[in-house]
Predict the 3D structure of the following.
Amino acid sequence: MSTQQRLKRVAKLQNVLRQQSDGSSTLEELCRSMWRSNKKHFIEMAKNNSYQLFVYQFEQEDASAALMAHRRVAARR
């Protein structure tokens, strides 16, 4: 990873932190933001460390949301 790529990622995290009303964020909120911006990268980053727990959690939440969306569409038919 190049220095410029790292600086861009730090800038993105700083933007996320600035958006919080009191200036604080939880680790889960930051990880969720990274997940939403680039799932593939987050999965790679989480390999062989404790962030893998977030991958499982976010995949479950995405699957649940997709199922609910599918059910809403099916109910409208």
About this structure: The chain has four helices and no strands.
